[in-house]
Design goal:
Blueprint lengths: L1 H31 L1 E5 L6 E4 L4 E5 L4 E10 L2 E5 L10 E8 L2 E5 L4 E6 L1
Antiparallel strand pairs: 1-2, 1-8, 2-3, 3-4, 4-5, 5-6, 6-7, 7-8
Length: about 110
């Protein structure tokens, strides 16, 4: 009897954890959706769609990507050309009001909402 109760509680905890992660995804995607512009005047822009697509443009490069959030402090980007094996990269991520920061080990890009 105690074992069955323990198993039931474990299953409920796992299901609630999965639900929380998917809710986090939807919430973060909704918060980041829209157009962002790099604040130092580089001309780099990001267009996030709530469905997980991202268009990255700069004066010299244009990328179509997909994105997701493995956790609240990271964003995973998959920006490869068609017919190339996918290799998503994970970056640091922070969002506060109309300020977005994406970072790797060497630098941080800071963006403001357009």
């Amino acid at each position: 009897m105690h074992l069955q109760l323990l198993i039931l509680l474990l299953i409920m905890c796992l299901l609630s954890a999965c639900k929380s992660n998917s809710e986090l995804q939807v919430t973060d995607r909704a918060k980041v959706a829209g157009d962002w512009e790099e604040i130092r005047g580089t001309g780099e822009t990001l267009h996030f769609e709530a469905d997980g697509h991202l268009i990255m443009n700069s004066r010299s490069e244009h990328h179509s990507c997909t994105y997701d959030f493995p956790n609240a402090k990271q964003i995973r980007l998959d920006c490869v050309a068609p017919d190339v094996p996918h290799k998503p990269n994970t970056y640091g991520f922070a969002l506060a009001d109309d300020k977005l920061m994406i970072s790797d080990s060497q630098s941080t890009g800071t963006y403001k909402r357009k």
